[in-house]
Request: fold
Amino acid sequence: MASSSLGFVYGLGCTHHGRMDRMMANGRGRYRATSLTTRMAVPRVPYKAPGSQSYEFIDIFNRLYRDRILFVSQDIDDEFANQMIAILLFLDQEDATAPVTMYFNTPGGFTNAGMAVYDCMMAMKYPIVTLNLGLAASMGAFLCGAGTKGQRMALPNSRFLIQAPGLPDLTRGVASEVALEVYEVLRQRDRIIEGFHRMTGRPIEQLRKDFNRDLYLTAYEAREYGLIDSILQPKVRGPSRQFTAGLGTPSV
Reply:
């Protein structure tokens, strides 16, 4: 790929130290990461392109997508969604049968942006493996549950947050315009509920009740809910004799 494309998925890895702040309902899920410190530099790793005689350093998230791995680690806004869609389309052109893995640790995002990614995921021919690493909130939970059935997973200490979309920030205007905004949000909510119905098999009426307020799920509860299929249990390994970090030789 051309060097100019190396920044193509930079947004997939633009994480920052932050905290979770409750927002006014704004149609993007009501949590967002609020920056407390300057943005961290994205780690760079060596990569040898096919046919190349030498290695080059590229950011780690670009390296991951070349192995058909997408790391969803920030708010899902329009720009981020466009990057994800472009990668999914590229991977479909590259190999329409090899699976793609999507890792999630995200506070959510805009409903419209998330639904665009969802529609693209549904259109892809290859299987999509999803894994919640920490928090999959709002549209993150929706997309994590949209993976190929039987291949949706979570780590034991991960959490899910299911919530209804809300009105955009600072919604104002005459009553008829506000009513139109409310109608559109309710229509978006119904589309999301229908999506969860297909993912989980739960009755529509039960999902409507669940959407009345925020619903937190542990990994085990999410499995019972039908949002994921399995929980990955980390393998417990004994101490290594090769790497003791200068703390002495292990006794076992």
The helical segments are 60-66, 78-94, 111-123, 139-144, 175-200, 204-210, 219-225.
